[in-house]
From TrEMBL:
The keyword Membrane applies. Residues 5-144 form the Glycosyltransferase 2-like domain. The keyword Chloroplast does not apply. InterPro entries: Glyco_trans_2-like, Nucleotide-diphossugar_trans. Keywords: Glycosyltransferase, Membrane, Transferase, Transmembrane, Transmembrane helix. It comes from Undibacterium oligocarboniphilum. Belongs to the glycosyltransferase 2 family. PANTHER family: GALACTOFURANOSYLTRANSFERASE GLFT2, RHAMNOSYLTRANSFERASE WBBL. This is Glycosyltransferase.
Length: 312
């Protein structure tokens, strides 16, 4: 009996996918109760050869799907609907877990009777990544004590175990739709929206610090420009998801409050960035990113969102 379905969406990363599949199929204690669902979301089906190779080795324990419309929400939904297990593990195609990853996730789930278990994503830098990027820790994400109840700011789909019934209980208006909203499928933010819905529905969401995955940081992302663009987009998506979850009658008031707050925070962050520039440039850049994120929140109201998925 299949106990857990690992759902992976991939887009033009065949060699990283190969590395991930090797790690997933090597999980301790799950050799006979694990299936992997991979959705190739590249119109050119760049993952086809990798999936063929692993299909020959693992047979029906690998479910390979192709979705030619680049949309991360549709790809995630296709994977979830194809999964047969009661538990869904989600991991990104540029990540890689240790051999005890699933053991630790399920141990935390059982100990804390959780519906959703989140775990760390740790940066793995390519050799050519500049030293200032590493020292600045701009790709690091905060870690928590195991068992800590998760706040929405720490809820991401890159390394998570979730009860399938919890996902399918979300009302999408159609049994074949969701749980991820396709409207966020190219801009990102689909995972933020989903976990907001689960939080509102009362799902118990906790952290497991013993189940990290590593995430490749390619050299093309290790630039000031990429990081600032990422901060700007994060601000946009925060405002979009925050307002989308508020009743229409309250939305205008909330939007005004968040806008004023963003203006104040942007000004303060810019001031700190300037003051720190000469004697603490790494911290100055962190404050600059905070400033840019606040500007992204304000830019949301212009209605133009940057696509972050489906392009290479």
């Amino acid at each position: 009996m299949i106990r857990v379905s690992i759902c992976i969406c991939t887009f033009r990363r065949p060699e990283l996918l190969r590395r991930l599949l090797q790690a997933v199929f090597s999980q301790e204690g799950f050799s006979d109760v694990l299936e992997v669902v991979v959705v190739d979301n590249d119109p050119a089906q760049s993952a086809a050869q990798v999936l063929t190779d692993f299909g020959h080795q693992y047979g029906n324990r690998l479910i390979a799907l192709a979705l030619q419309t680049p949309n991360i929400s549709l790809a995630r939904n296709a994977a979830i609907h194809a999964a047969s297990a009661d538990w869904i593990g989600m991991v990104d195609d540029d990540e890689c877990p240790e051999r005890d990853w699933l053991l630790n996730l399920f141990s935390a789930q059982q100990k804390y009777q959780a519906d959703v278990v989140f775990a760390p994503v740790v940066p793995e830098y390519q050799n050519a990544v500049p030293g200032w990027i590493r020292r600045g820790a701009y790709f690091d994400r905060r870690r928590l004590l195991t068992g800590t109840q998760i706040r929405l700011q720490d809820a991401r789909s890159g390394n998570v175990l979730v009860r399938k019934q919890t996902l399918t209980a979300i009302d999408t208006g159609s049994p074949d739709a969701g749980p991820f909203d396709p409207a966020y499928g190219q801009t990102g933010g689909e995972d933020s929206m989903l976990f907001r819905q689960l939080d509102f529905a009362g799902a118990r969401m906790i952290w497991c610090d013993e189940a990290p995955v590593s995430e490749i940081v390619p050299v093309e992302r290790a630039t000031a420009t990429w990081l600032l663009n990422r901060s700007f987009r994060t601000g946009q998506l925060y405002m979009r998801t925050e307002l989308a979850c508020i009743p229409l009658k309250q939305r205008r008031k909330r939007a005004v409050f968040l806008s004023i707050k963003a203006i104040v925070q942007a000004g303060a962050a810019l001031l700190f960035s300037v003051l720190l520039m000469l004697f603490a440039p790494l911290k100055a850049f962190s404050w600059l990113r905070i400033c840019v994120s606040q500007l992204g929140k304000l830019n949301h109201f212009r209605g133009r969102l940057f696509a972050a998925y489906g392009e290479k």
